[in-house]
Amino acid sequence: MKPIFLGICAAFFFAFTFILNRTMELSGGSWIWSASLRYIFMVPFLLLIVIARKNLQPLLTAMRKQIGMWMVWSFVGFGLFYAPLCFAAAYSPGWLIAGTWQITIISGSLLAPLFSRTIETATGLVKVRGKIPFMSVLMSLPILVGIILMQMEQATDIPLQDLLVGILAVLIASFAYPLGNRKMMDICGERLDAYQRVLGMTLASLPFWFFLSLYGIYTVGMPSQEQVVQSALVAVFSGVIATVLFFTATDMVRGNMQKLASVEATQSMEVIFALLGELLFLSTAIPSPLSWGGIGIVIVGMIFHSYVSHKYVPSLPATSSNMKM
Length: 325
Prior knowledge:
By secondary structure, this protein is mostly helical. Helices cover 74% and strands 4% of the residues. It has one domain (2-322). It is built from 13 helices and two strands; from the N terminus they run H-H-H-H-H-H-E-E-H-H-H-H-H-H-H. The chain has a two-stranded antiparallel sheet with strand order 1-2. Keywords: Membrane, Transmembrane, Transmembrane helix. The chain crosses the membrane at residues 31-51, 72-90, 96-114, 134-152, 158-177, 198-218, 230-249, 269-286. Pfam families: EmrE (PF13536).
């Protein structure tokens, strides 16, 4: 029961990403600063965690050996993930982005052919390219249906072009996130733990965030004090607290696939927490029955997918479920 509780707590803190990004957008803050400041502020907190675990030197050594790969895939996994997600906040409420974000389950499955694993055969070790798990994709279709239902309400309230731009931004993020993270997991192997990997990717992505910050200074000026504070809160709540809670929960049930699926399914609660937060603090309009139906379908689809997918042998050992936002 404790891992489930920790998973729900993690979803609660992850939801702050969507709520605060929307708050900053509505108060006139630029998505540029919402994105870049979050990762810049994450560095000192993650450094303290890794140093406390006495794991900083192995990380720096590993990064020096393959700094080019670290920078490329960190840009993909963090830069092309979070910048579009913040950009989407200009077009949709946070709860809707949180719901649409669940499409990353489908996106991650479609990336399987880009990865390979080594298996032992009678003739020796052979690399086998991953295959799209069509059963997993099929089980994910209810999630897609729920997302479409949620978007249908927005289609009547905002211009179609704005709606499509917001959806496209989330789609880009949904592919970039698992792609960059899985590539980095392949590069790191078992030499680094999750905390080292997140810190390493954050450090390697800093050139992009500094460049984006310079672009922000030139185009929109410096961020307000309010946006700086809110970005720091996102870094603490989502980048540190939620990540630590989720890693702790998954580590507790690592050897039990059914319990692991239960912990993963708790992350569908992000949609509910994001919605409640916007209703309380942003006076967001209550979703229509159609949107509520879509939210329910997404949550049920997430739970069903998590439970059933572990009954099948995965195409690859690495998934995006062990590295959250």
